[in-house]
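Tutorial, part two.
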Amino acid sequence: MKPKKKPEEGTTFLLADTEDSIVEITCRSIFPNLEIFQLGLNKEVSEILTNDNIPRIILATTNKEIITKVLLFYEDNNIEVIPFLFTDADTEKLSEQTVIQIIHFEFFRLKFETLRSKTNFLMNSNLSNISETFENQNPSLGSIRINPILFHSLLKAIDNKCAENFISFMQKVNNLCSQNDRELIGEILLFLEESGSKEILASLFSESIQQFFNENNFENINSSLLILIIGLAKLLQKDLFRINYFWFNTLIFFICFDTGAFHKDKIYQLKDMNHQTNHFTDDISIFTLASILDNKKYITKELYLDNNNLTSIEEKYTKSSSIFINRSNSKKNISIHEKFEISKGYFEYALKLIRGN
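Running the prediction step on this input gives:
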């Protein structure tokens, strides 16, 4: 990539898919000399990029091909590029430095949630200067330079809030296997914490939980993936009990895949954060899932229940537990996918009984 000089002031080109008054007003407040190109209605991008005097392009498009063309032009020319939206480019065609700059920019774009803070950020930031700002403020996130494709995949999952993108990212995490990768997982968790994205990833985990039990996606679940999920749960603290059944899905995930029970103590520590009145339902859930998923190492002791002292909700969990453990025991040689469905059925039926429908 050629070294960049600060471009001369002039027309700023906004590339947008459709008319968007918020985007246009925000960009015009920063760059008064703004020319808007609504893609498909105005000139083609190739025509715009033949202009030798373009000082600045704002990307407010989701078109991957167009974004990639603009970034390739950026790598070879003296222009500023400001991504207004997530920069979903063909990373295989770009230099590693550009991919790193995209990640650094996206970090701040996620972090600055209000329109005012985002506007202030866009006034002073572009791809050329963002890395210096990022690395000065976040010296503990150096792994981005070591594995930019992994972080870009993470950002794509967060921005699109898409199960397919999330599973693609998790597959990349699952392929990590060296001791140094533990440091990388730690930095991914720090990235989520600092960018305010941990709850989005937790929600995606719950929405995508079934995909982990599909052997076409994951033949084996490796330690790196377990470390990431338990780290995310610890980051969430008590919020893990309110996000889209994240806690219950975490139990299923670990009781199934942590076959050596290496993370059992951490799971029980998280359980202890739950409200006192929920301890029984957590215990019966762990007992039930360990029985269905055949991981007795997660049972600390046999549950001897005094049915006379159970609350109404506890009775319903106990009833569901009995039904679904018996259902699991009645089947022979069941697949991991079937075990997941029975585990999920236990929880769904307990909730159905509680709701009275």
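The two ends are 63 Å apart (CA to CA). In part three we will examine how such features are distributed along the chain.
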